[in-house]
Amino acid sequence: MASLLCIMHQSKGSVDAHIYYLDLLRQHGHLAFPMIGTIVYLSYPTRAFVGTSPAVLKAVAVTHDALLIALSLAVFINLAMVYAEKGWHFSPRFYFDELNNHSNSSSSSSSSSSSSYRCSFDTLIFVFYCSKYYEYIDTWLLYAKGKKPIFLQKFHHIGAVLLWHLCYFNKCDAIGVATLLNSGVHVVMYSYYLLTLLEVDLKWFKKFITSLQLLQLVAANVLSLYLWYPPNETWPNYAIILLFNAYVFVLVLLFSKFFRKEYISSHDASSKKGEKGDGSSTKNGSDDQIVKAAATTATTTKKAKRSSSSLAALATEASTSAS
């Protein structure tokens, strides 16, 4: 009897353990998506499409950039309309809960009809989150061209997928501001990439895009830390905001280093090179003038010697004749 009770207790413990792990899987199993995405991103065969025709790569890149422009613009406009209609509210899950189910809202019928033509906040965040996986193609296109992406690009893509995932699945309203800013910057950035592919000379604009990226990162950090501080947000979600801010802080450092290297150090180096080149040219010019002057002096000396010889010969002939 005691053995039977022991077995029953062990079985109950086993069932409880299974229930516990199933609950854990239901709660956190969604983390498999960014983890699998990161593995796929990092394990992509870097030389898979090296040697592909440049015309094909250009067509793929143009299509890729055009799709991201259209998607980012749609998200930016619709999200701006959400904030314009609902205003700014700072309470846990306000936008996710209020805009997810229009039938439960207490707004008037005219308000419901005016918001029926646009996407909900939840849908917009989800679509933009999914686009973070699609942006992996940025790196894969570089590999196909035989180029190696910098660490900044890899860190940016991996972190964006993970943080947008955490904010969406935990319904963290602060992600709306980050999405609004990021989608707007993406419209500008991918338009620049597209026009460059179409051979429009916009090299002068590249520095302003990096500056715009830095500005949106700093703005998103400051706003999310201050505006969604508890009780405006739950502490678990604020922990996600802090993690997001840590990621963005590293991005700011990396972008600043990139900015300094590309636009400040390289400019200084080219200026010094130009100055050195001008100095050597002046020196070479002076040397040429000295050589020419020396050659002229030598020629003049030779002519003078010849004239003296001629005069001496004439004088000798004259003396002989007189004798």
Features:
mainly alpha, 11 helices, globular, disordered C terminus
Describe the overall structure.
The chain has helices spanning 2-28, 32-42, 54-86, 94-100, 109-114, 121-134, 136-144, 151-169, 175-197, 206-227, 235-322. The radius of gyration is 37 Å and the shape is globular. It is built from 11 helices and no strands. The protein has 323 residues and is mainly α. Helix 3 packs antiparallel against helix 6 (121-134). The protein has a domain at 48-264. The relative contact order is 0.08. 80% of the residues lie in helices and 0% in strands.
Number of strands: 0
Shape: globular
Helix residue percentage: over 70%
Low-confidence stretches: 101-114, 279-294, 310-323
* Distance from first to last alpha carbon: 166 Å
Number of helical elements: 11
Structural class based on helices, strands and sheet pairing: mainly alpha
Q: What percentage of amino acids are in beta strands?
A: under 5%
- SSE string, helix = H, strand = E? HHHHHHHHHHH
Instruction: Give Rg in angstroms.
Output: 37 Å
Overall average pLDDT: 80
Give the biggest beta sheet: none
